[in-house]
Amino acid sequence: MKKRIECRIFGRVQMVMYRDFAARKACTLGVVGEVWNEDDGTVSLVGEGEEEKLAALVAELKIGSFLSHVERVDVSWKEPTGEFTDFVIRYRA
């Protein structure tokens, strides 16, 4: 069953390739959505896909990239909107 996750990742997750790590894991799992840095030092991620693939992504997000230190991942499960066709890293201008 398709679902949507909205995640906030806390810890040392900026300037450590965390967004790239999350995007690669999402693409490998066939999850679509986006990931971006927040002003408060956290990272946000929205993903849509099969529930078991999203659960696998959340497990990977909790582990993090080689240089990161994930303290906590808050996850909200929702119904998918179908707004995404791929997974992208969102950058600020």
TrEMBL record:
<dbReference type="InterPro" id="IPR001792">
    <property type="entry name" value="Acylphosphatase-like_dom"/>
</dbReference>
<feature type="domain" description="Acylphosphatase-like">
    <location>
        <begin position="4"/>
        <end position="91"/>
    </location>
</feature>
<dbReference type="InterPro" id="IPR020456">
    <property type="entry name" value="Acylphosphatase"/>
</dbReference>
<comment type="similarity">
    <text>Belongs to the acylphosphatase family.</text>
</comment>
<protein>
    <recommendedName>
        <fullName>acylphosphatase</fullName>
        <ecNumber>3.6.1.7</ecNumber>
    </recommendedName>
</protein>
<keyword id="KW-0378">Hydrolase</keyword>
<feature type="active site">
    <location>
        <position position="37"/>
    </location>
</feature>
<dbReference type="InterPro" id="IPR036046">
    <property type="entry name" value="Acylphosphatase-like_dom_sf"/>
</dbReference>
<feature type="active site">
    <location>
        <position position="19"/>
    </location>
</feature>
<dbReference type="GO" id="GO:0003998">
    <property type="term" value="F:acylphosphatase activity"/>
</dbReference>
<dbReference type="Pfam" id="PF00708">
    <property type="entry name" value="Acylphosphatase"/>
</dbReference>
